[in-house]
Protein 1
Amino acid sequence: MRNPQNICDADQTAFQLTEVIGLDQATSAIMKEYVDISYGPWRVKSWASVGQYAGSLLLAIAAWRTGVFGTARALMLLLAGGTWMGVLKGASIPDVLVTALLCVALVPLGVRMPQDRPPVPAGRPKVLSW
């Protein structure tokens, strides 16, 4: 189980082990080898995931500074940047609410784009704005 080249992800490994050796043995095997299975020897996925946080922060700041998003919509975009990170993570009620807020923030923009009406910057960003 220590060869990360043959393992796609921790959740896939857990499901396959459950079918082969049963739930109890699969649970103890995954708990024992979790770090090696989920991250591998160089933890590339962990280091690369920092890009999601930095990218969502930069995107929210850029949308706010250009006036395309107000403060509220930029914060909604920023909140969604940290949703569902890691392996073996499930969705909870707060995750669903953050995703709904992201939809609220992006739907007006998505409605304008197919109508060939690009977003009109609102000018200088205000601290409290939609």
Protein 2
Amino acid sequence: MRAAVAARIVAETGDVRRFHSSAAFAMHTGTAPIPASSGATHRHRLNRGGNRRLNAAVHRIAITQARIDDRARRYLDNRKAMGNSRTEAIRALKRHLARHVYGLLITAKRLSGEIAVLRQDGLPAVT
């Protein structure tokens, strides 16, 4: 991820703690799929809402990954083998990347000490 794209993501996201899950973050970035099924056809369409600048940053990452990363190419090939079009496969890759970006942002907050790591019983974990 280039520094400019990473900076855009950090700046547009603000405090990642305001999102209760990666799904909420994906809705904010506009990468969460929206059901567009009709009859026996079950599909999802691109979300045109959310923060367009964040969406553009995730899109840049997805297109670059599709071009140079073998894992992303395999992911896209698998999605196409499942019957998805290239656009649908890119949408799925963007959602996957948004989940990963959210995890990185949360990890960065934890490492900085701004988010306490809690055990299942709600007590602080010793790290």
Protein 3
Amino acid sequence: MEPAPLPLIDEHVRALPGDAAQAWDAVVAVLGRALDRSLGPLTHVWGFQPPRPGGPRPLQVGSWGPGFTVTAFEPGERLDLSGHHRFARYRLEVLLDPPADGRVVVRVRTLATFRGRRGRVYRALVIGTGAHVVAMGRLLAGFDRARRRAPVAA
């Protein structure tokens, strides 16, 4: 039995200069670094699944890091990270729109469901306070920085 679909929480958008391959490389580099990090004691406190980095590298379906597993990997188009912990089940979808005017629009969608009373409290702390918006802004800025640091094709 498949789990119920996850409701959309929000979507954040940023246009990156360059072509689709450059934007994709930036997305994969930033998310690859994120998945390779340890979250230390938070892993146990929150009960992140999976708890630690592993799986194939470079990133592909089946790669994982604390709290996330790569569940979709379509180069130049889409990378999904799915996971769960004590309070929520979630998916982060990174979508690249076709290039236009020398830019690629990157959309990051968050879908999640929150479990019980503690899940509602967690949602209020993470989503309700704006902390999630800040985190997604930092993620998109990281894509932009990685893109700008990448060598320009001749």
